[in-house]
Amino acid sequence: MAKILLVDDAAFMRMMIKDTLSKNGYTDLYEAGDGAQAVEKYEEIKPDLVIMDITMPNMDGLEALKAITGKHPDAKVVMCSAMGQEAMVIEAIKLGAKDFIVKPFKPDRILKTVSAVLPQA
Questions:
Q1: Domain ranges of the chain
Q2: 68, 21 Cβ separation under 8 angstroms
Q3: Which UniProt keywords apply (predicted)?
Q4: Long-range pairs of 94-100 with CB within 8 A, sequence gap ≥ 24
Q5: Which one, of 76, 27, 28, 24, lies nearest residue 50 by Cα?
Q6: Class (C level, CATH) for 4-116
Q7: Which of 20, 32, 33, 97 has its CA 20 to 30 A from that of 55?
Q8: Mind listing the pLDDT tens digit of every residue in the chain (121 residues)?
């Protein structure tokens, strides 16, 4: 089963994505509360996919994305954004993000994105 790292400074957002994924068979789930923790956790667990918020304290999602894809060009990262962050989403895609999910999250959109980005087992 794929390892998925969920990165958001809002614990309830991580919980919502985790709940959606775990109800659909994804059980190897890890969490980080900001970009700096995401970079550390990425090195530790080498996840198959990272789902990461753009706006976070300490190190934002764009900086963390740049750090991860700079060392691991094949990293699969999906960014989460709020409405009105189109410029940041475009920047994230340029930095190597594979896709993005707009908040508020819809479970179907999360699952569709995860299955499109992860290699099929």
A1: 4-116
A2: no
A3: Phosphoprotein
A4: 95/62, 95/65, 95/66, 95/69, 96/65, 96/69, 97/65
A5: 76
A6: alpha beta
A7: 20
A8: 899 999 999 999 999 999 999 999 999 999 999 999 999 999 999 999 999 999 999 999 999 999 999 999 999 999 998 877 888 889 999 999 999 998 888 999 999 999 999 976 4
Total length of the chain = 121
**Per-residue pLDDT reduced to its tens digit, 29-53:** 999 999 999 999 999 999 999 999 9
Tell me the HSE value of 68 on the side-chain side, using a 13 A CA sphere: 37
Which of 64, 107, 104 is CA-nearest to residue 81? Answer: 104
